[in-house]
Each structure stands twice: as C-alpha cells, then as structure tokens.
Amino acid sequence: MLKKMIAKLVLFGLLVCGSQAVLQVSISLNKVELSVGESKFFTCTVIGEPVSLTWYSPQGEPIVSTQRVVLHTEGVRSRLTIYNAIVEDAGIYRCQAKDAKGQSQEATVVLEIYQKLTFRSVQTPQEFRQSEDAEVVCDVISSPVPAVSWFYKNKEILSEPNNRFQVLPNNNLQIMRVGKSDEGEYRCEARVEARGEIDFRNIAVVVNVPPVLSVPQQSFNATADAEESVTFTCITSGSPDPEVTWHRKGQQIESSDQHVLGSLEGGRSMLTVRSVGKGDGGPYTCRATNKAGVLESQLVLKVFVQPHITQLRNVTAVEGSAALISCSAEGEPLPEVSWRRGSDGQSFSDGDKSADGRVEARGRNGKSMLTINGVRLTDLGRFDCEAHSRIGEHQKSMYLDIEYAPKFQNNHTIFYSWEGNPVNISCEVMSNPPATILWRRERYTISSEPTANTRVHSGPGRSQLEVTPMSERDFGRYNCTARNNIGARYQEFILAQADVPSNPYSVRLTAVAQRIATVAFMTPDSHGGVPIGHYVVNYKESSNQQWRSAKSHGVQSTVMLSSLEPNTTYVVRVAAVNGKGQGEYSHTETFQTLPIREPSPPTVHGQRGVGKAYRLGLIKQDDGGMPIVEYIVKYKPDKDDQWMTKLVPGVHEFALLQPLQWNTRYSVEITARNIKGLSEPTYFQFLMPQKPDITADSLFSSLGLGTVVGLGVAALLLLLVLVDVSCFFLRQCGLLMCLTRRLCSRKSATSAKGKELEEGKAAYLKLPLKEENGKEVLKPDTIEIKVRGENSHHTNAGDSKA
C-alpha cells in the first residue's frame, strides 16, 4: 500500500513538472465488495481542465441517473451512487474525462457483488402425512453457494446409503417413509467458508397420522314407538385428533332433541337417537377427518315396527254364497297374518283349510284373504285377524254378518185346547234381515186387530196367535208366513181338541216304614194334548171306605205318604191331572206298614265345646215307628273304669258333656230309647286338649265386641269425670263448676233477705300471705272466708268488688 502511494506522488510530480495539458483521472476506490442490498458511492476526480466527465457501466454504456443509480457531477468531480445493490450491478465501472482537444483519460473501479446467506420460503412447522416420503424445505441462497447441514436432536444428519434421511442437492432434507417418531425440531444450517458467514433456521416437522376409526357395534336393533333410544359409538384416533361428524342420507346430523351428540375421553364419539320411530331406520355414517385424511364407517339401525293391522272390515254375506274377508297389516319385519274363528277358536294360517274344506286362508307379504264357501249360519260371528312377528303382535276383530231367509225355531206345531179355553200358538222366526210375520187360515189373512176369538201379539222374531175356540170350526190348521228380502217361508200349526190324561200304571211301593210309605208309578201314555200339571194319590185303610189324598210335587212320579198307622194294610191308586181335568185312576195296589220296633242306633258327630266341655251332635235316625224318648249317654276317661251317665231328651240335637279333664281321652256309648225299647249302642271317642294359658288376649277374646266397646266407653267417661273434678278444685272451672255456680246463683236469688240478716253475724278470717323472704304480710286482696250460718261461700277480692 505504501508503495502505491509513493508511485502516485512521483507520477503527480512528473505531470506537474512536465506539462499542464494532460488530464489525470482517479477514483476513490479501485475494488469494492458489496453485498446484495447494500448501497455504495464512488468519487471520480480529474486533474486538469476536462470538458466532460462520463461514467460507463460494466456493459460499456454511459450511465444515466435513475432512482437506484444516481450521478452527481460538479466541475472536476463526479460521484456515482448505487442504492440497494443487486447481483447484476457487479462489474468494472469506468470514469472517463475529455479535454477541449478531445483527448480522454479514464479510471476504473471493480465492483464485486456477493449474496449474504438468505433463507427463503422456510416455513415452520412443516406437516407431512405418515408413511409418505417427506421433503423438509430449506431454501437458502448466498454467493458463493453455501454449504448446508442438517441437525436433529443436536446430531448432524449424514447422507449415507440406505439411510432414510438424505440431504438433497437443493439442500432440502428428505425423510423416507416418515413416521410419528420422526416428529420434532430440525436445524437447517448454512455456511459460507470464504466469509466465515453462518446462519440457521429451526424447522418443526409435524407428522399427521390419518384417522383410524373403529366401531364397537355396527348393527343396532330398536322397536319403533316404544320410547326406546339407541346410542352409536365411534372410537377414533389420529394426529391431529380427528373431527367426528355423523351423517345420514347424505346430510350431516346436527344436535337436536332427537339426535344428541357427545364425546368421551379416548376418542369416543356418540350419537344418541331418542324415541326411535319407524323413519329412523337405515344406515348412519361416522366420519373422522383431520389434515391427514378422511375415514368413515357405516352403522346400521334396524327399526322393528310392532305389527299393526291397517285394513279389516265387517263383511255381510248371504247364506249359501261365498264370503271374502281381507286383512292387511304392516310392520318391520313384515308380520305373518293368521285368522282365528271366534265361535270355536280354530286358527287358519296361510294354506290352512277347515275340516269340511269350506274355509281356506291364503296370504303373504302382510296380507291374507279368508274365503268361506257355502256360507252357513254357523259361520256367523266374530273373526279375529292376528298379525304377529318376533317382536310383537296385533289383533283386530271383524264381524261376519249372514243374511238368510226366515227359519222357524219351534217344532211344536200341534196345540190342544177346548171350547172356551184360550191357547197361544207361537211362531218363532229367525231371519236376517228381520222378517214380517202374517197368520193365515184357509187362504185368509188373520187381522192383527183383535176379534172375538183371535188376537195377535207380535214382537222381534216372534208372533203369537191367541185363539179361543168357540166351536168345532175353530179347530184345525193355521198358517204362519214369514218374509224378508232373501225369501219367504211358512209353517203350519194344528189346533186340536184336548182330552184328560190316560191313567198312570205300574203303581208300586218303593219304601214302607211304620208311619210313611213311598208310592212310585209310570206316567200315562197320553197327556190328552195338554201338559199334566200334577198327580193325585188316593189311599185308605183296607177296612175303611174314606179315601185320603196326597198331591205330587209337580210332575214327579213318586209321592210320599205320611201319618200312617203302624202294622196296617192300605189301598192306594193314582190319577193324572191336566188343564182339561183329572183322568182315570190306575189299578189299586195294597201294602202293609211295618210294626213298631226299637229305634236304630243313633249317629253322632263330635264338636269341641267351650272350656272343659265337649259337644256331641245327635243325628236323627229311624225311630222304629215311635218318637225317641231319650238318649242315654255314658262316658268315662280311658284310664277309669267308672262310667258317668247323662240322659238327653229325644228332641234335643246335641249332648253337652262337662266338666271334663284336660288332655284326657274319653270313651262314649250312646243309646236311643223309645217306648218299645233300647237301640243298639253307638260308640265314640274323643280327646280333650291341653289346658290353655289365660292371658289378656284370651280374656278379651272371650268377651264379645259389644262388651269390649262398652268397657272402653266407661273408661273414657271415668277419665273425663276425673279431669272435670280436678279442674273444679284446682282452677275453679269445668262442667262441675258451671253447675255449682248455676245452683248457687238460684239459691242466692231466693234467699237475698236471709243473707242480709246473716251478714251481721259473720266473722272474717284473713289469711296471711308469705313474701319471698318468708315473712308473713297482709295484702288488700287477701282471700276472705265468710262464715255464715248454714252456707259458706268462698270468694276472692274480685268477687267482693263485683
């Protein structure tokens, strides 16, 4: 540097000394290094008398001032300023000076532009999808070209074969099959050795993991309109945490009263469908979304709908035709439809037929048709349509109405009567729709208006013709005609003259005792056209001419005769009685009553009595023809040999044995006696119970309900009296006090004069009161006791003032 300065001074001296006409041009700097973006100026100085100073660019073109490149010339000096240098500004700049002779001199300066380390488009964090080949971008420039190194966890990443980490020629870092474990902060470091320049950037690498979705349960079942709820669950994972949405029929489900969205820890997302209905069935989609992708899974809700019968109507058919009954049902799954006949409960499913082949059921897909061929009246009634599936059933009923021509219900077509006796000829008709009924006789219609011997009584399904025969011509045939829109029918009745019944036969005695006998007989062959009302049995002693009569109960063919004499021969005969009168008697039958004998052994039954007593029930038996006078009852404990005897009148129905011993077995011998003698004995045994404990419960249990209630009321009244007396003496109140005052006031009113005379003789006794310290003092309101002749009144100060 010193040498250069000396050379310049020598050159300057020589020029000064040699000639003043030669121009000398110099620039303040010969060589300059400038980084991109910096600014610099250069000064060109001329010695001499230049007529022009011009700067030339590295391209050899004169420089003209611009906003970034500015020239400023003053006399022999010219300054070139370059603002915000760019790489294209590099090169040799010349400053040329010319004199008046046109001679020129110039000086040059070398401008070198270099790029400082500059990081461009370096973003952090940089995100990648798991398992893809990631390229971490680090765009750094400089001049000269920088050397770039990468560091991870404070260790330099070296590009080695088979290494997942490689530094690319463009200085980016490539990570093959990037994984979650590769996440972290990486350092991109750039160096320019020539200048010792270094810079770096920390870049966060984030690895996004695509959503992973699992469904614990994919299919759900629910019943519609049963207030059921179903909750779908999706379990998701991923990085970042996926956002879960629910979709149905291409639309996202928003939270509402029916659809409730929720989430729990562990990536659980739920969708609850409340009050599941028929329209809620079908697929639902759970969709998980994050930066790394989208994944979805489908869940299916199968809604079971209870079977419901939608179409069933009543049907009307004509007897003999075909009836078609249709039933339709819906549900999920589609229900099977069957039929049940209400009259006998028989069921008909698809393809079933009745035993006679007239009834057949056909159907599928929730529909069924029940066909009844040759409809009969027995088909009339309720038919149940039953729709059933595995989740429930539904039943509805219809009514099959059958229209038919009139049908006569009574087979009784012959009626009997006699002159002057009215008879009702009944015509009962069953028809649908109801029929009109007319009576005819010999081609003439009998008027519904009453006549001398006919009267018509009509009601629903019934018409009654009342005929009072006046002569023989009123007997004969009568016609009942019934008609509706289905058809007409008629029935003929015969009114015949009645007669008395024929005689009963085969009269016999089925039971004979001392005083009673039972007569049995066969009913007459003919009742005379009029029902038999009863039977009359005549009987008498064989030696007597006077008949006695007994009447049967209704039409019973047995009659009991009573109050007979023992050991006596009787004659008996039987006749039947109807509305016309009494018929002939049967042949007579003779029987003899039994002689008097001892009674049969009595029958007894035991019943525990009260306390130390035992009750023996006596059941009446055959008394041998004479009343039982008494029962002889003998009894004794099994451990004793001595019998005790009790006589019970024959009219009694029981014998009471007492007193007896507790916990002892007794033997009993009972004999019945009438005037003829003694019966065979009847033997009986019984066991007395253990001696009971006498407690309050047993005491009250022995008392009746009325007694217990009476005792309770008496105790309550006694308590009230005690309370009233206590109030009278302690507080001078109560019912007793009120009565006393009333009595005293009446007495004082009647003896006022006597009181005035006696008051002069009264002595006053004042009772001292005690203070708190125990001393006795007298107070104005001291209680006074007025002593009178006969009566004493207790008063206080308040009373005396009054």
From TrEMBL:
Coiled-coil spans in chain: none
Annotated compartments: Cell membrane
InterPro entries the UniProt entry points to: FN3_dom, FN3_sf, Ig-like_dom, Ig-like_dom_sf, Ig-like_fold, Ig_I-set, Ig_sub, Ig_sub2
Listed GO CC annotations: neuron projection; plasma membrane
Limits of the Fibronectin type-III domain: 503-596, 598-693
Membrane-spanning residues: 699-722
Main subcellular localisation: membrane
Endpoints of the signal sequence: 1-21
Swiss-Prot/TrEMBL GO biological process terms: cell adhesion
Repressor listed as a keyword: no
Residues covered by region (Disordered): 335-360
UniProt keywords, alphabetically: Cell adhesion, Cell membrane, Disulfide bond, Glycoprotein, Immunoglobulin domain, Membrane, Phosphoprotein, Repeat, Signal, Transmembrane, Transmembrane helix
Organism domain of life: Eukaryota
Keyword Transmembrane helix found: yes
Protein name: Neural cell adhesion molecule 2
Organism field: Clupea harengus
Gene: zgc:152904
